[in-house]
Structures are given as C-alpha cells and as structure tokens.
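Researcher: Sequence recovery benchmark, item below. Answer with residues only.
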C-alpha cells in the first residue's frame, strides 16, 4: 500500500535559481586586466563627451548671426561712418563680426591687403572653432584599438589557464579570460562609435559656420569694391 502511494506521488522538482548579471558585475568579472582596460575606456568616454558638448556650445555661440548685420555695416561704410561700423562689430560677439572689423580697420589699403588681413584673421577663427576636435578623432580611433588590446589580453589569460590545467580546464577556469576579451571589445567599440559620431557632427556644424564666414567676407569685399 505504502509502495503504491510512493509510486503515485509526483516528484517535486527543485526550481532552478536564475542568476542575473548586472552591467557593473559584467565589467568587473574579467579580472585585473579587464578592469584596467575598462577604466581607460571610461576616461576616454568622459573626455569625448566633455569635448563634444564644450565644442557644441562654442559653435552654437559662434553661429548666432543677425541677418541685418551686413546691411548696417554697409550703411555705415557707405556714409563714411567707419567708427560706428567698428563699434557695431565690437558689440557683436561672433567670428563674422571679428572678420568684418579686421577688414574695416584696413580700409584705405589695397583690396588685396584687406583680403589678406581677413584671411589671416579667418584662420585664427577656424582654429578656435576646431579647438580640441582632433582629440575627439583620436579617441574615436584609439578606443576600439584599446578594446582589441583587452581582447588579446583576455585570450592570453584564457589560453594560459588552459595550459596550466593540462588541457582539462572547464569553462569556470576560462571565464576570466573570456570576460576580459568580450567586455573590453564591446567597451572599446561603444566608446569609439560615440566619439566618431560626435566628431563628424562637430565637423558638419563647424563647416556651416566657416561657410557663413566666407559668404559674409565676400559680401564685405564686394561692398568695398562697389563704385563710389
């Protein structure tokens, strides 16, 4: 009787405990090599994000332009109010106004000298706009390579552990090297992609400001070249 009850009693399955792995646990599970590489990548990510937003705000400030600015300059120059034109340029804080002021200060010289003075000032303005953008490009190229360096380190660790265990190592022994290889690769690619997108966006925004500077420089030189 008891044997029949035992046979009919269903076996109670022990539930399998599911383990979740957080991003932080994943980053720290690769050992010292992965932690060092991930730390470097975090520094590069911080640098990239800081430069991107600092340049975005600088470019945004440089792109602010009053559409009636050149009309006011034209009226002042045509009427011989050179000092008024200089004051207007000084009160307008953007590259176009500074280039125009440089050209106004050379009025009386040849048109070639005025053009050269504006070009020299323009190079300085372009340099200000592109300040530190090259660092962003360097981060975009260096981050994936640093990640791949972590991959190589991880694989070395994995094969070292395999060799130390006489070829009978299980996945637990190889886990540290595999974690290092995978996490650093992903980290390097993520940082590189972010920096690359940020760099190209800054280049596009900077080119728009430079184009606006060139267009207004041409307008100013045409103004000076108009017959009296």
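Model:
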């Amino acid at each position: 009787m008891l044997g029949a009850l035992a046979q009919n009693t269903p076996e109670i399955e022990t539930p399998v405990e599911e383990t979740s792995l957080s991003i932080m646990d994943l980053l720290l599970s690769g050992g010292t090599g992965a932690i060092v590489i991930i730390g470097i990548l975090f520094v590069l990510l911080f640098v990239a994000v800081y430069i991107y937003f600092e340049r975005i705000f600088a470019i945004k400030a440089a792109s602010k332009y009053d559409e009636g600015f050149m009309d006011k300059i034209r009226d002042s120059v045509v009427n011989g109010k050179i000092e008024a034109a200089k004051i207007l340029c000084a009160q307008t804080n953007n590259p176009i106004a500074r280039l125009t002021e440089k050209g106004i200060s050379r009025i009386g010289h040849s048109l070639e000298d005025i053009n050269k003075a504006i070009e020299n000032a323009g190079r300085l303005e372009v340099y200000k706009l592109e300040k530190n953008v090259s660092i962003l490009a360097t981060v975009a190229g260096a981050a994936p390579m640093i990640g791949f360096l972590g991959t190589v380190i991880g694989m070395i660790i994995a094969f070292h552990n395999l060799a130390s265990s006489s070829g009978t190592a299980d996945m637990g022994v190889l886990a540290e090297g595999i974690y290092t290889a995978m996490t650093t690769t992903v980290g390097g690619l993520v940082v590189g992609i972010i920096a690359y997108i940020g760099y190209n966006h800054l280049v596009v925004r900077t080119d728009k400001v430079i184009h606006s500077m060139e267009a207004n420089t041409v307008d100013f030189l045409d103004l000076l070249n108009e017959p009296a």
